[in-house]
Amino acid sequence: MSDAPTPERRILRFESPAAVLAEVDRIAGAERAGQLKRTGNWTAGQAIGHLAAWIDFGFDGYPVVAPPDLAERARARKPTALREGLRVGFRIPGVEGGTAATEVLEPGDAVGRYRRAFARLQAGTPGFPHPFFGPLTNEEWMMLHLRHAELHLSFLHPTSPLAPANPQHEES
After folding, report:
1. How far apart are CA 89 and CA 93, in angstroms?
2. Are 39 and 157 a contacting pair, CB within 8 Å?
3. What is the CA radius of gyration of the chain?
4. How far is CA 29 from the centre of its chain?
5. pTM for the full predicted model
6. CA atoms within 13 A on the CB side of 128
7. Is 160 exposed, middle or buried (0-12, 13-18, 19+ CB in 10 A)?
8. pLDDT for 26-80, tens place per residue?
9. How many angstroms separate the CA atoms of 108 and 106, rounded?
10. How many C-alpha atoms does 152 have within 13 Å on its Cβ side?
11. Closest Cα partner for 30 from 127, 158, 124, 167?
12. How far apart are CA 69 and CA 63, in angstroms?
């Protein structure tokens, strides 16, 4: 966990893949138009690419190992995390930068990766257990990746009039 103050975030709640994919497109469009405010440390491409990579890790294998004590606590918290969301500021001990897959990407490239990864998730169940939450059902995998997107995309604020807010996935 981090002791740093929490920057301004949007409250997001995604109930479907379509909602999160629409928001990713909106963010990328705002970035291209120079109409994206960031209140976190990552660019739009970094955040979207990170989300794509963590979906793919479930199919291809994870580059990190959870310390056993943290994995035990995460598994106990799994129902809450999947229902209410993931914690801001969590850093994986012993991993440079606190997590994997934070390379800077162009937003368009990141969106393409994310769409491919999400299509993969919709088509099948990842074969590798999550390093913190362990084995998950299809529904739990989907919930996890929707909550993960809520976390990272909440630091990106599209301000473009060409990218209006969608009330189906953003709460006031």
Report:
1. 12
2. yes
3. 15
4. 18
5. 0.89
6. 15
7. middle
8. 999 999 999 999 999 999 999 999 999 999 999 999 999 999 999 999 999 999 9
9. 6
10. 23
11. 158
12. 18
